[in-house]
Every structure is written in structure tokens, then in C-alpha cells.
Amino acid sequence: MAKICFENGIFSLDTENTSYRILINEHGHLEHIYYGARIAGCNLDALRYKRTIGRGSQVLTEPEDKTYSLDDVPLEWSGIGRGDYRNTPAEILMPDGSFTCDFAYQSHEIKDGATEMKTLPTAYGEGAKTLIITLKERASEVYLRLYYTVYSDANVITRRAVLKNCEDNELMIRKLMSMMMDLPEREYVMTSFDGDWISEAQRHDRTVQSGIYINESTTGASSNRHNAGIILSEKHASEDHGRVYGFNLIYSGNHHTAVEKAPNGMVRVMSGISPHCFMHGLVHGEEFETPEAVLSFSQGGFNGLSHNLHSFVNEHIVRGDWKGRERPILINSWEAYFFKYKQGKLLRLARRAKKLGVELFVLDDGWFGARNSDTAGLGDYEVNRKKLKSGIDGLSKRIEKLGLRFGLWFEPEAINPDSELYRAHPEYAIRHEIREPAMGRNQLVLDLCNPSVRDYIVENVGKILDEAKISYVKWDMNRHMSDMHSPFCKGGEFFHRYVLGLYEVLHRIFTPRPHILLEGCSSGGNRFDLGMLCFCQQLWASDDTDPIERIKIQKGLSYLYPQSVIGAHVSQAPHQQTLRNTPLATRFNVSAFGALGYELDLSELSKEERRDVARQTAFYKRYRKLFQYGTFYRFDKERDNMDCFEVSEGDTAVAALYQTVAEAAPKNDILFVKGLDSKGLYRVQTREQRIYVSRFGSLIKHLIPIRLKPDGWILRLVNRNYSLKDGQQSLSASGEQLMAGLRLNRQYIGTGYDKDLRLSGDFGSHMYIFEKGEEKGA
């Protein structure tokens, strides 16, 4: 159970393994005392920052206290104009016309459970406790409530702020963060997850030195450029060792996280809505709610932090009928056909998919209006009967009759100028009356600040969902925001009002239809955030389905998000995003560590490849719960060309070892398995996978008694119908020995073939299963 108590002016917040301490100091400010591994009590003599004598150049906040300058106090909140010159969490034009503000303690309340917001989604869950501290601005009737909610099981504390104006004059918010805290200096490294389209969530590390480091999105969404989550770690922290702090935000719009190392060595962290183009007025009696920020700590390295955050997302963010449920294996029509299909073609794909073990058929873009390319049709919902003669309803029934569930793609937030909706309601699009709009992917964005637009989306999407047998929706949004203007809000409120409108639309459509599995998408991972996960049970990680790129993308996301919410598909090679030709085995071995899908034309697979896919789906179903909800581990890289993922739970673990580029005469590999019972006896087995004859190229002519052309019809026929075993390994050993290092079979080194040889080459991989049997020595 979460624990919050108040004694002798100290707030103590405790999770299972962490503690957070706040002091109401002698001047009424909230002083940050401690956040880290769990401790008993709070000895101020030991833990409090010492102000033995004043620092040079300081401005005294309280003139009678010659050591008290807010610039030299570790704080939970700060303001402007009272001597703290570090980065401020609040930039407010106060009712008196100045920016000066100084918030001090007035009262507090401790409540059971989480506290919902009026306008934004929040975390939830039984066993939580919430501390609400009310601060009052010392010279005006302006109040700030700070919310701290403790989730003990996940070792997470969430924070948010609510500002209320009780003055007669209006105030104007230009910046209001969700949280702020001052940490003691520990030679931190800041880790962010940055990228672009088809290159999301790339890990970047920066040593925190003097100055301010900002992780921010200004695109209108949480963005593929900079994920909202960051990590602060001590200098030598590894995947399994060291002190690590995680910060994230339950929000899908422009975000801002700043890390500042001050002259006194303190490190100030704050997170919230980006102040970019942000202004929000409050008249008498009005309040403004900030998004909820997420904080976690582990002294077990990056994996320990990830375990906290994965548990938090699975238990306290994802909700509805699909919470905790195993995700179905799907096939998506996009990379197979793009816009070029008719009903018969789709049904043939569905039949092939069913035979290979797929459970859900998803029809992607192109089913409505004049949507034969990305230049027309967005905004319309009339089914294209030339493509789908039975309509969505008829197609969905035929798909279900085959034994598959049916899912459908939508992009409700966008509009093409070449659409019936735009011709009827051009005012629904975001644009300036006096400017030509900037275009992205041949489309504009609908104005979700407009209640009529929200009603239009809810009505039309809801109608399609209710008329057909749809159990899955892919909700897409394929461009950044521009021309930010709406007659339904003031200019500085636009970005935030848009996000509020989106949340309203999602709530109105999917809360009455909890049976639908909702996958969010935004040109891949352009909106991969905790806000969307309050509505979507999974998110599409990237439009890049090349597994070598996906290793980096899924690894980056895994620091902050569990594998259960990461959509990952096996596609055809060479891959459409990179032209890289990767083995089918590796495509599966990467995608299996997520919500598995396939996205390719199955008719183009050889007989042997179809057998491989059937083996893959059967294997995934057997270990699906482990892959989606097991404890996930990353490994510190010992070689630049290798990477490894592992999941474990109970008596079973599965690990995959990936090789990006082969080296000549490679060294023998060791797999240091994690999370096993040291006393248990485990059976180790490689997942059965095959290597196709074509992989050997002209070498094959040296292995057979007759001369055949490597690209001749005989070997092409053999390649389609026959394959060789790849890297078989089977043994029994104790968990203790396996965690000390499993010696793997040798890789191909140019001297011959053996069925137990690991034929990794470029882009190869192998998967290992560890299943506990009898106790060691039994």
C-alpha cells in the first residue's frame, strides 16, 4: 500500500522501494529533502541541504535570515522576482500587472486513491494515495494546488499542478509546469529518445554540465522528434546497476522537460506543457490544470527503472476491456497493397493469413470516398463500393466467417482539400483566412477546437463502428500541425485546446465501445505517449518495419513503455523503408517482443516461407503472455554489432540475440541470462528456425556433386520448398550457471556447414527458450 504521512512539518511519501521527503521550511516554502531508495523516517540533520553561510551575489528572500536566498534552496516549486534565478516552472502575468510571484504553504490534504481531472486523463488504480498541498501567492489571492499521487506497487509518484485565480483582475499564464524538483548533484547523464519519421526513439546520452538542457516538442503532438520521457542516471549506471530517475508526462501535445545544473551544483528538473506559443488567461474563479507528470526511481539501473514504468503503464494507464489481455496476431493490408485493392483481393489475403495462424485482419487506408491515393478523400466516410462491393459491414462479416476478427483504419483528424467534407465545410480545417495553408502529405488538419468538428467525427466514426463487426481500430494522424488558428479559442490556447478536443473525441467514441482494441498511430511513433495510452491499448511504434532499425526503435521505447503496448510487424524484405534484405527469422525475432503483426502480401511468400510463418505464429501463441507481459530485460552491449532482448516470468524465459553486421572470424558468444531461479534446473532450447538455400549464394555449387547456377531455376525451386536447420542447441543447466553465462554454439566462420552452426551473417538472430523443470539436484 502507498504511504503518505505528515509529521513535524515533513511530508513522507513511500512506495515499495522508494521514498520522497518534502519540508515546509521556516519561511513557508516547500523544500525538497530527498527522493531515492526507500528510507525510514527523515533526519533533517543528515538529509537537509546546509546553508551554513550565505553565497556571494545572493538576493535575500527573507532579509532577517542572512543565509536564506531562494536561489540556494532545493525547492519543490519556485516563482519569479524573489531571488531564484534558476529556470522557473511558472511564468505568470499576475493580476497586479507584474510577473513576480511567491507561493507559500497554506494547507494540505491526504486522500485515498487517485484524483481525476476535469479536462485531462490521469493515472488510476486501487491502493494509491494522494497528497494535495495548497500554496497561496503571498501578495494576491492566487492559489496553486500541487498533487502528489503514490503508486506503491509500481514505485511511481505522479505530480501535477492546478492554478486558481481568485482576484478580480485576469491573470495570464505563459508557462506552468506540472512538476519541479531540485536534486543534489551526482554527475548525472541525461538520456532522451529522439528521432524522426521511420527513426523514432533513438537513445541519446548527454552529461549534465552547467546550463539548461531542454527536451521539447513544438509540432502540436508529443512528436517523433523528442519523446516526452527522459532519464537521469548517475555517471556509471548500467542496465542493471546504479541510481536512475525516470520522468514522463501523461500528455499528447507539445511538451517541455528542462534539466538545469545550477552554479551551486543542484540539478533542477521540470516537466509540463511546452511554453511555445502558449498563453492561457484565467478570470476570477477559473482554474487551469496541468498534465500529470510521472516520476520513478531505481537503484537497479535502467532495467530496474523500466520494470517500474512498465508495471505503471500496464496497471495504472492502460484501461478498459483490453487491459491485461493478450493482443491478437494481426495482418495489416497496408504494405501489401497500399490503396490498390478490391474485396476479393482482401479476402484472399485473409484466407491465407488464417491458414498461417493470424487472428485479426486489419483493412488499412483506402476504403472510403475517392481515396485511391493520399491526395483525396480524407474527411469523408462513404464506403467506396467499387472497391468493397459488400461495404464494410459485408466485408467484416465475411472476414469473421473465415474465423478472423476484423479491424479498420481511420484518420479522423485530417482532411484533404479534394474531399466532399472540405467542399461543404472548408471552415472545418485549421487555416488562416488571409493565408494559403501549409500542406503536409497533401492534407490539412481538422479544427478539433470546433465542437461541430468533434461532433462530426464522433458521429461518423461511431456509425461505421456500429454498422459493422469491428473489434479493432487503428487511429492514425499523418502530419505535424501548422497555421495554428481557430475562431473557437484564443491564439495562445490553440495547441492545448486541440489536445483537449482530441481526448474528448476519443472518450466519446470508445468509452461506449470498450470491446474495441484501439491502436494509436501517427505516421508511426509521432504520438507515442502516456496520454494516448489512456485511450489506446497499444501504439504503432514506427512505419519502419526493418527489424535492424526496429531493434533500436523498440529498445528506445522499452526504457519507458512495456512491450504490451508496442505494435511490431513482420514485413516483406527488402524493406520498403531501407531496401535492406533481412532474414524472415530476424523479422519475427524482433517483432515478437511486442504486439505481433504481419504486414506483407502472403501470396509472394514461398512454400517454405509460409511454413516458417506458421511456425512463428504457433510459437508466439504459446509464449504470447510472456512476450507481452513478462519482465523485459536489455543487456549492456559488449560488441557494437550485437544486441539482446529477454523476457522472463515464473518458470520461463525467452531471449533473442541479434547481429547487425557480420564480422570475419567472429568470437564465440556468451549469453548472460537474467531473472532465473538460481536453484532451478532449466531446459534450454533454440526456437526452430530455418535458413534458405539462397543465403549461401554461389557457395552452394561447391557442396553438391553437380554444377548448378545459384540463380538457376533448379536452385530457385529448391529454395522455395526446402531449407536447412539453423543453429540448433539443446541442453539442461541450473539457473545459476545460465546467469553466469551460457556458451552459445559457434557462428559461421567460412569453413563449412553444420546443423548446429549459427548461420547469423548480416542481420541474423537466434532465439533461446529457458523452461524450468525439477529443482537442481532433484
Describe the structure.
With 778 residues, this protein is of the alpha+beta class. Helix content is 19%, strand content 30%. Strands 6, 7, 8, 9, 11, 12, 14, 15, 19 and 20 form a ten-stranded antiparallel β-sheet that branches. The longest helix is centred in the last third of the chain and has 23 residues, at 607-629. The chain starts with a strand and ends with a strand.
Produce a short descriptive summary.
The protein is α+β, with helices and mostly antiparallel strands and 778 residues long. α7 packs parallel to α8 and α10 (547-558) runs parallel beside α11.
Main attributes?
778 residues; alpha+beta; ten-stranded antiparallel sheet; eight-stranded parallel beta barrel; 14 helices; 40 strands; 30% strand; globular
Radius of gyration: 28 Å
Question: What is the average of the pLDDT values?
Answer: 95
Main sheet makeup: 10 strands, antiparallel
Shape: globular
Binned, the helix content reads: 10-25%
The number of helical elements comes to 14
- Structural class, by secondary structure, is alpha+beta
Distance between the termini: 38 Å
Stretches where pLDDT is under 50 for at least 5 consecutive residues are none
Strand fraction equals 25-35%
